[in-house]
Amino acid sequence: MTSRLLVDKIEGKTTSGTIQMPVGHVIQTVTNEFSTDTSTSSTSFQASGLIVSITPKFSNSKIIVTLTGGTQTWGSSAPTGTVNLYRQLTGGSYTSVVRLSYLTQNSTYGLSHSSMYVDTSHNTTSAINYQPYFKTNVGTYWFNYDQPIHLIAMEIAQ
Fold first, then answer.
1. Domain for residue 118, yes or no?
2. Which residues pair with 136 in a beta bridge?
3. Rg of the chain, C-alpha, whole Å
4. What is the pTM (predicted TM-score) of this model?
5. Which is deepest, 8, 96, 116, 156, by most CB within 10 Å?
């Protein structure tokens, strides 16, 4: 005989409203899509405007941040496009946490973003904002050109 449990909703029995999930389970996922063509000629990091905000249920959760889609392009002599992921904790300043990509070629077009970062150091249950920043060493670097790009944050139970 098999057992079945049928429910319409699961809630924590205390006022916290949270349920302890087994390690490795996804607690929540937040996504943001960005379709605006965005470029820079700056040699300093520029905010992309693509932000995903997540409020962790637990301070020890892992947050997996993924940047996918879109295309990275440039068209001058041997530029280097660099994309770093910045994080903002509890309304503070954005600070760089990891380099997501570093691309060097001459007149390259159509390279898609595909990067992942696992945040194990946030230690908060307050809102966390993640945003890619980008720069070039010479010429113009396009962070996103002619295709949607997605930034995804997933909270993983520990």
1. yes
2. 81
3. 19
4. 0.86
5. 156
- Expressed as residue numbers, the domain containing 43 is 32-156
Asked if the structure places residue 23 within a domain, the reply is no
Residue with tokens 């997933």: 154
Instruction: Report how far residue 154's alpha carbon sits from residue 56's, in angstroms, rounded to the nearest whole number.
Output: 9
Q: CB of 40 within 8 A of CB of 20?
A: no
- Domain annotation covers residue 115: yes
pLDDT tens string 19-59: 777 888 899 999 999 998 888 889 999 999 999 999 999 99
Number of domains in the chain: 1
Give, in degrees to the nearest 5, the angle at Cα 66 between 120 and 39: 120
- Residue 24 in any domain: the answer is no
**Residues sharing a CB contact under 8 Å with residue 156, sequence separation 6 or more, in sequence order:** 24, 25, 26, 27, 61, 62, 63, 64
